[in-house]
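Objective 1b: paired records.
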Amino acid sequence: MPNWLHWLPLMAESLPTLLWAGLIFTVPLTLLSFVLGLLLGLVTALVRLFAPAPFVAVARFYVWVIRGTPLLVQLFVIFYGLPSMNILLDAFPAALIGFTLNIGAYTSEIIRATISSVPRGQWEAAYSIGMSWSQVMRRTILPQATRVAIPPLSNTFISLVKDTSLAAAITVPELFQTAQRIVATTYEPLILYIEAALIYLVMSSVLSALQVRLERRFARYGGFLEARA
C-alpha cells in the first residue's frame, strides 16, 4: 500500500482532535493574548508619549527587555523560572501572561508610531474648539491612528496565531502539542506535522482575507473623513 493511502485514514482520524485542541486552547489563547496585549500596548504607548520621565523610563525598559529576548525564553522564565520564587502558575495562565507581555511591547511601538504620525495641526484644531486632552484622543487622534495601525496590528495578530505553537513547550495542550502527542503514539511525524501546519495555514489565510476587507473598510472611512474635511 502506498504511503499516502496509509496517511489518509490517519489524517481523517486525527483531524477532529487537532481541530478541537485549536478551538479549546489555540483560539482562546490567541484572542485573549491579543486583546490584553493591545490594551497593554495602548497604555505603554500613551505613557511613552505623554507621561513624566520616570514612567517613560519604565515603559522603555519593559519594551527593551521584551523585544530583546526570545518569546520562548520569556515563556520558560514565567512557567519554569518563577516557581523558584514560589510563584506557581498553570500552563495556560503562564502562556497567557507571556504572550500578553510580548504582544504589549510590540503593539506599543505600532500604536506610538501611528499616534505620532497624526499631524500636530489636528491637536491644535481640536484644542481650539475647547476639547480636553481625553476628548482629543478619543474623537480625533485615535480614530485617525487606528486606520494607519490596522495593517501592522493585523500582521501581529496573524503572527500570534502561529506563535501560540510555542506554548507546547510549557505543556499547554494546544494544536501543536496535540499533534506531538498523536505522533508519540502513531510514529508518523511527517504527516501529522504537515496536517498541523495546514491547519495553521488555513487559519492564517482566513485572517489575511479578513485583514484585506478590514483595510478596505477603514480606507473608505478615511476617505469619508477627508471629504468632510
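Objective 1b, second protein:
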Amino acid sequence: MEIKEFKRINKLKYLGLVSLMGLNAGCTITKEKQKPNVVIIYMDDLGIGDVSCYGMGQLKTPGIDRIAAEGLRFENGYATAATCTPSRYSILTGDYPWRNDKAAVLAGDAKLLIDTSKVTLPKILQKSGYKTAAIGKWHLGLGQGNIDWNKEILAGPKQVGFDYSYIMAATNDRTPTVFVKNGLVEGLEANDPLEVNYRKNYPGEPTGKLNPELLKMKTTYHHHQSINNGISRIGFMKGGKNAMWVDENMADTFLVESLRFIEENKTKPFFLYYALHQPHVPRVPHPRFAGKSGMGPRGDAILEGDWCVAQVINKLESLHILENTLVIFSSDNGPVLDDGYADQAVEKLGGHTPWGVFRGGKYSLFDAGAHVPFIVMWKGKIKQGVSKAMISQVDIMASAAKLIGSDMPDTDSEQLLSTLMGKTEEGRDILHFEGLKGRVAVRSKEWVLIPPYKGPLRHSWGGNVESGLSKDYQLYHMTEDPNQQHNVYTDFPEIANELLIKLNEGRNK
C-alpha cells in the first residue's frame, strides 16, 4: 500500500472513530433495565506489572486504572493457563483447558475448539435475553477443518452463542490476516479468492525467510512465512489482497465495532466480549501511540490498549448505562518480551517489570504465567477497594449465571458472585493453572505446588522465559516468597502431599 493511500485510509478510520464516539453522547436511557450488561475486556499477553494500579511497573495506564479506582482490584486473580487459546476456552466454557485435549495454542486454520452443543457463557446470557457479541481476537478455531475462506464459515462464534462477531481468526502473527464478520471474510473479492495453508507455500508468494527486503519488521524466530503489511507471519496464504488488514488500524477497527455494538444495544441487556490484541506480537500500534511509552512498540501497544479501554468506559458513561454494567478486565496470560519479532522489547524495557513481583511469564508454570491483572467495576454496586481473594477467570461463567438468575451446568466454574461484588474476601480455596501441554500447577491460599515435569528449564521462544519445569517437586510459600526463589518441598512434605491430592483431583475430575 502506498504511503499516501495508507494515510487516507487511516484518517478516515480515525474520523469515523471520533464520530462514533460522539454519537448520542447526551442520550439518557429512560427505560430501567431489569438485568445488567456484562462487558469482558480481555487483553493479550499483558502482565500484572504492566498495569499501573498494581504498583509494580513503570508504565501509566489511566484507562485501566479508572476501572480499579471505581471498582475492585484483585491481587490474586488468575487465568487458567499461561497461553492464550486455553485461557480463552476456559473463560467462555467454564471448564479448565485440560478437559479438552485439543485446547492448546491453535494454528490459524484450526477447526472450532468448542463443541457447539456445549453450554457456554454467551449461550447462558443469550438464553436470558441478552444480545451477545465477540469482537477482537478469537483464536478458538473456525469451521470443521479444511476451511473454505471464500464461503460462510458455519462453525464459529455464532454457533457457541454470539449474535454478532467481528474477529481475527487466530492471532495477529498468524495467517490469514483478515477480519471475519459473522462468518464471512470482510472485504473479500470473488475474483481474488483467499487460500491458506500451514504446511507449504504457494508458488510465487514471497516469504519473510526468502524476501527479507520486503519486511519493515525483522523476525527473531518462527515468523518467517507469508508477508502482509511488511510483516511476515506464521503460515502461508495467497489472494484476498483487498481483505488484508493494516496492523496500525487494527485497534481502531475493533474499538469502532465495540462502540457500535454498545450504541445499538443500549436499551436492552447485552454481553460484549471485547478481546484486544495488545500487546501480542507483532506490536504495531497506530502512529498516534508510536514512541509514547519510551519502551518501544510493546510499551506503545499497551498505551494504545489502555486508551481503547478508556473509550469503552467513556461510551458506557455517555449513554448513562455505566451504572447498569458489570465490567470485568483481565488478560489471557502473563507477559512476554521477545516473542518472535525484533521490536526492542528487551532492549528498551529499562526498569519496568511486566511480571511484577512474580517469577516467569507467558508459557511458564511459575506464577507470572497465569497470575494476571483482574479488575471488576459496577458503578454504584461494587465498592472501590482491593481484594486478596483468590479467583480464576473460569469462575466468571458461574458467577454471571448467578447474577442473572440462570441455571449453571456442572463445570469447573465456581460461583463467586459475592466475591466479585466485594461483599466477601472468601474466594477459591484451591486454584489450578496450566503451563504448556497439560502441565498443571496448583495453588492454595498460601502455597503453590509444581510437580515434576520433563522439558527444558527455559523456553527457546518467549524471550528465554523460564518454563517452571523441573525433575523435582517444587513448593513455594507465596506470601513470604512471591518470587518463588526458595523451594521448600523437603521442609513441608505434608502440605506438598495435600496439594498433590488436590492437583490430581482437579486434573482428573
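Confidence is low (pLDDT under 50) at residues 1-9, 11-15, 18-32. Residues 431-508 form a domain with the Arylsulfatase, C-terminal domain fold (CATH 3.30.1120.10).
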